[in-house]
Amino acid sequence: MTDATQQTPTRGARTGFSMGEGMKRVLIGVLSVVIGVLAWHIGAMNTSPLFLPSPWSVAKTTGEMIADGSLFVAIGASAWRIAAGWAAGVIIGVPLGLFMGRFQIVRLLCDPWIEFFRFIPPIAFVTLAVIWLGPGEITKIALIFYCTVFIVTINTIAGVENVNQLRLQAARSMGASKLTEMTTVIFPSAVPFMITGARIAMGNSFLTVVSAEIVSAQTGLGSMIWTARNFGRTDWVFVGIISLGILGYLFDRAFRMATRKWFRRFLF
Length: 268
Hints:
By secondary structure, this protein is mainly α. The protein has helices at about 1-45, 55-65, 70-100, 105-115, 125-135, 135-160, 165-175, 180-215, 220-230, 235-260.
């Protein structure tokens, strides 16, 4: 009875401390954004709107694009391309990295191709992608897949190579097969590396989708940014850039929440 009475305030204090820390982080983040917008406003007051539109001008343009639906169309197109290409890259990159890290023959066969193509940026393949795949959605998705798969593969290989050898020896001493080793020791140990690779690849996917949409798309945030130059609408460019940043933040937060829910026991 006494122990329970003593523990209750401690737990409450911990919860209050956690809530206080969380609120502090939020307030610091909000303050940072406010300072940034204020600096932007001061800069816009001292220059041409063509060079640097004001926050109010960008907000007004954002409202207009939301009202006519064009912003949602652009965001939806880019989000779909990123999600499809990135997911395909992760689905292929994870097993490829596991097999390359675990089996020497697979590593020897695939490593020259991985090491060659990973240094070639996706934008270099835009023209060929349009010729081979056409100007449709598959071209943009393929380019995003290309920029994702190598990053995820290499990070997964690193995860396999960092598996604790004592755990493998323990599994073998208990008669574990190669498949059992892969599913119960290697995969769980490599999960943090896979997640890191997937997050890095997601950032690169946003870079790639803008390049791809500039060259071969009629819709999307990249296409909107490129179209803005024809009309001298710098405010459109800012709307596109801010939308990309917010979309990326939401994608990353959703991915982190999902991994914490599904892979919590595998994370450090």
